[in-house]
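Lecture 7 notes. Example A: sequence first, then its structure tokens.
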Amino acid sequence: MANSVKIGDKVRFINAKGGGIVRKFQSKTVVLVEEEDGFETPVLISEVVVVKETDKYNFPIEEKKSTKEEEELPAINTTEKEEDYSWDENEETREGEELTLYFAYIPVEIKQLQTTDMDLYLVNDSNYFIRFCIQTKSEEKYIIKYQDMVEPQTTLWLDKISKESVNDYEEMKFQAFAYKRTAFNPKPAIDITLKLNPVKFYKLHTFKETEYFDKPAMLQTIIYHDILDLNNTISAEKIQEAINSKEAEDRPKKKPIEKRQNKNDIIELDLHINELLENTNGMTRSDILKYQVAEAEKLISKHLKHKGQKIVLIHGKGEGILRAEIEKLIKYKFKKCEYRDASFQQYGFGATMVIIH
């Protein structure tokens, strides 16, 4: 029972892996549980179960055993430790030094989208451990839905979403911090609100092949190469308000330009930052460069299975910094792809053509 939980009790989580010791009550319905890594995690009392009770003085209550039972018990190896994480730091990747996280929604029966359940995963495509808390909105307030830790380069199953509960995932607040077991470059804490139109769950074209799963999945970006996907936080009401405002001088958000030429079947992506973002307030030159390279990487990755596909990345002449980063990206990330200067007649000196092999 929820009201039987006391400070000092050893508990395990009902809807997530792990558990720990109850250290304090944050409120009438939430306790702080200290896990093995020393971090205190807020958890609903209804989401834990006591596995080792304490008395009123917070001392563990030992179960009494008969002399015969004690004699039959095997010797306990006090030096035996719990298995360590399976992650091996030798598996770290160059691109994994930047945080990339997604929510992934996978239909159990993709041919029956109107009625099927959805498997919800958290995808961690980075070299960092991510300790996270996911909250859903209920009557203008948030409640903890999931809290756990996902290892580097791992997909973590969170839940099975039924048709009846789809609307609960229309708005989710994701909070997390990243760390390593060895020396590392610290990352800012993540705090983002993600919005998803439930109608997407019923459209077949939203579920596509990805490098993370054998089944078609819909990916919802949380953070991509250290850049938060803030587009999800803009509601329809805010967009309409901006349109109606006389003072709104900025252009609306633009998606990366992706054009197909009928003759040569070429895809174009204009990497000029004003073609990718509404504005760059608060972004440094380094942030902008990272964003441009990330968009190029995303487009190439999307078409890796299309052998012979030609992609033109329009980066402009400028100081040549973006061009150099694009070439570095292809050399290290897409070694099987060919790249060369795009047609001078069409693009001048400011474009690179990538050919998928």
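Example B, a different protein, same format:
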Amino acid sequence: MKKILTLVLLALACTSLQAQIRIMTGIEVLKDQNFKCLEGKRVGLITNPTGVDNHMVSDIDILAAAPNVNLVALYGPEHGVRGNAHAGDAVSDEKDAATGLPVYSLYGKTRKATPEMLKDIDVLVYDIQDIGCRSFTYISSMGLAMEAAAENGKEFIVLDRPNPLGGLKVEGNLAEDDCISFVSQFKIPYIYGLTCGELANLINEEGMLKNGVKCKLSVVKMKGWKRKMDYVQTGLQWIPSSPHVPHTNSPFFYPVSGILGEFGYVSIGVGYTIPFQMFAAPWIKADEMADAMNALKLPGVIFRPIYAKPFYSVFSGQQIEGVQVHITNVQKAPLSPINFLFMQEMARLYPDHKVFEQADKGRYNMFDIVCGSKNIRKNFSMNHRWSDIEAYWNKDVKEFKELSTKYYLYK
């Protein structure tokens, strides 16, 4: 009797959850199609904990249980297929405890699948929830996997998911040749306004893979997603895409402070309860900084004084002051410029703490490759003013938006 009651309650919970969801992700559409595109093929799956259906069941378990799908291997990006690796930690080759399938690491000694890792499969399936920002490494893993698929004659299928920032927001210059890296793998803006399926098509067709190779690519499109939708509006539950991107609105804040965060010079909330949502340090006066940032009158953003004592990471155990960033309209808010505007106001209010005069110079390269250009740092560091780099930061936006429309799968 107790087991029956549990099943009933679970069914009711799933029905309630389903009623709030406004879209079908790629895995839901694939299920609806009875996995037809995978029939008769040996399947490799690139995923992590975000790869779930609308009932929160993992793609791994779904494909492993499907009678007409032959799932033979798993591939783990940063954090691993089950999310058991910390940010930046190498992912190991292992066996998946639940299915017994081999798991090949795409975030360790090898970041691009080798011929040996692909020899037993016919098709690579990719399903990971991205956050819409170039420096988040999942899209780099996707692109390198596409490259490996092309070089080894394997099919590549993307199960599409929403861009949490929506499909209209584009910010930042294209990554330049001397700043191509795993955090800026492709020549796209910092915020690129495409779903992972749309981005895969653009990368493939615009010759962005090594030596201009193209893979046999197909995208299982979502149903119901619109470009104007941010993640909150989809009704989908959020699964942390990394430990410091824990909530539905977390992707809104990652580009707000992640660039400055590369220096570890001020706390951006990593190590406190609001990762990427604040700027604070021992030398900052909270009210003074909040007044300065609010005086900029940025649309869709409010800055609130905050007092904190981080539990770990930057300024662990120290009392610090600063501002919490509150985004009231993600479409209107300029997200990535906030990094530089805060650096500007900090240099003005506290001239002894200008970032490029005090921060660890050993981190300059990481800052540059995240920005996608050395010119951002060089130009900004002269006067510590956003106006000195604004035109450069925005120079590629219009052209990229025009290019992107060729690859839109959704209106």
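Note on Example B: The beta strands are 42-47, 70-76, 94-95, 102-105, 123-127, 155-159, 216-220, 278-281, 301-308, 320-327. The CA atoms of residues 23 and 263 lie 38 Å apart.
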